[in-house]
Amino acid sequence: MIEMKSNEAITQDHASEHLAKLAFMANQIGDFFKSYPEAEAIASIADHINQFWTKRMREEFRTGFERDASALSPLVRQVRDKVRPAPAA
């Protein structure tokens, strides 16, 4: 028997997958800069995200890992508050 998911469950699955992708990308950036001195690495990761991620991605990164940042490396967790929020419309 095929089990159907509700629209809410599908939306939550999509949101979870999207956050997992953001975490993966942010952690890759963190891996690149992890050999730098910590303060420089944090600034460089934040700068990269601020320059190359869309407003929406930055906002989802800031809010999506507010409660649970366990998917982020310890270095990348320190970057979250340094990522520019999307400007208010």
Automatic annotation (TrEMBL):
InterPro entries: Formate_DH_dsu. It holds the Pfam family FdsD. It comes from the Bacteria. This is Formate dehydrogenase subunit delta.
